[in-house]
Specification:
Elements (H helix, E strand, L loop, with lengths): L1 H5 L37 E4 L3 E4 L17 E3 L13 E5 L5 E3 L1 H6 L3 E8 L17 H5 L2 E10 H8 L7 E6 L6 E5 H4 L4 E6 L2 E2 L9 E3 L12 E7 L14 E2 L5 E2 L8 E6 L10 E10 L5 E7 L7 E2 L1 E3 L8 E9 L4 E9 L8 H8 L12 E4 L5 E3 L4
Parallel strand pairs: 4-13
Antiparallel strand pairs: 1-2, 2-3, 4-5, 6-7, 7-10, 8-9, 8-13, 10-11, 10-12, 14-15, 16-17, 17-21, 18-19, 18-22, 20-21, 22-23, 23-24
């Protein structure tokens, strides 16, 4: 009887089978894990000393970006900072100017929060110099979501004792550019973090090791990396990075300054260039949406170039100030068409069309480029970016 049970079972013709299990033991344990040999996830770097690296949005799942794939942006390279010599100065309109070491910062009660960060110039490829052969990574890869751990900035300001005239802060980085931005005190006392960990480990050098400022929902440039100094003042400090740069040029001679909050945005990450639909039938349209104003409450998807819209399913978890995944089933019948997504956040703000955004900002703006993204599908199932107004 036992011998009969050990015999290879007889399978009906055409029945599915599994590949044979390996008979040779694989590698043993290791000090640091690696990805499978068949998985090739990389950022797309651009520039040298001053530059950026784009997150592969189309290749990721869930909402947390692996730390080594989180987008990077810096203006003078990545500094090498000795954590034992690190110091953070808090001074200006305070009762007690203080200097904190990294160990002293880590002695405060910590919090962990899941937030996205986005470069305010994210999306230039969808606004200027558009090309059909553009991937989601190249269009919107300057945004990522992580779990950040640190001490609330409000805690440090209470330790220093704010004076009654205090209204603004100057945050300064420890890179060669000495990146500095003015931050309203109300934001600092609300949800700002002085972060020293990302996704359970110390910050990576390109993410600001050993300490960075984290301003949830605000443009990436204000989230000062390699944070070394916070000066409390009674007015904006009008630094180079908020006068010569990071100001939204509008039509005519006007400009929008201190436009901190990132507007609601979404992008379809599948199907997208260079995908080719292999056959007609049902396909799941997938993508991500995010907003600096809280939660995403709705994402609508159009499969006919904006003539009609249908609500997509939001994938849990739907967190404030974090990427939110959406899904929508679509039956492709071999016709040429255009796929689009449109996000709405909890304030009622709706992601605008490209024409609407250009009517307000004009052709020269470089920041806050959150227009609806569109993907063309031809009769052969080839997907390209809809590079047109």
């Amino acid at each position: 009887m036992l011998s009969e049970l050990r015999e290879t079972p007889v399978r009906a013709p055409g029945a599915p089978t599994l590949p044979d299990a390996p008979r040779v033991p694989g590698p043993g344990t290791s000090a640091v894990g690696t990805r499978a040999a068949s998985v090739h996830l990389t950022r797309a770097p651009a520039g040298k000393v001053a530059g950026e690296s784009f997150t592969p949005l189309q290749d990721l799942h869930g909402i947390i970006t692996p730390s080594d794939l989180h987008y990077e942006r810096h203006h003078a390279g990545v500094p090498a900072i000795d954590p034992d010599r690190y110091r953070l100065l808090v001074h200006g309109l305070v009762d007690r100017p203080l200097i904190f070491t990294l160990a002293e910062l880590q002695r405060f009660p910590s919090v962990s929060r899941i937030y996205f960060i986005e470069c305010s110039g994210n999306g230039r490829a969808a606004y200027r110099a558009m090309s059909p052969q553009t991937t989601p990574q190249q269009i919107d890869g300057l945004t990522s979501t992580s779990e950040w751990t640190g001490v609330p900035l409000a805690t440090l300001l209470r330790e220093a004792g704010l004076q009654s005239e205090a209204r603004w802060l100057l945050a300064e980085g420890g890179d060669a550019a000495l990146m500095t931005r003015s931050i309203p005190l109300l934001k600092a006392l609300d949800d700002a973090l002085v972060a020293y960990a990302q996704n359970g480990e110390p910050l990576r050098p390109e993410q600001g090791f050993p300490v960075r400022l984290l301003l949830p929902g605000w443009e990436g440039n204000t989230n000062i990396k390699w944070l070394r100094r916070i000066k409390v003042g009674n007015a904006p400090f009008m630094t180079r990075e908020e006068t010569a740069r990071y100001t939204d040029a509008l039509r005519g001679d006007e400009a929008r300054q201190f436009s901190f909050v990132m507007d609601a945005k979404s992008i379809i990450t599948f199907p997208a260039y260079p995908t080719v639909l292999g056959q007609r039938g049902w396909w799941e349209i997938r993508g991500i949406a995010w907003t600096g104003r809280g939660r995403i409450t709705k994402v609508d998807v159009s499969t006919d170039g904006g003539a009609t819209w249908s609500p997509a399913a939001l994938q849990e978890p739907v967190l404030p100030l974090a990427h939110t995944r959406f899904r929508h089933l679509w039956e492709w019948r071999g016709q040429a068409t255009t796929l689009m997504s449109r996000a709405t956040d909890e304030t009622g703000y709706v992601q605008p069309t490209l024409a609407m955004l250009r009517a307000v900002r004009g052709p020269g703006t470089n920041y806050h480029l959150n227009a609806i993204r569109a993907w063309d599908v031809d009769a052969a199932g080839r997907i390209t970016f809809a590079a047109r107004v």
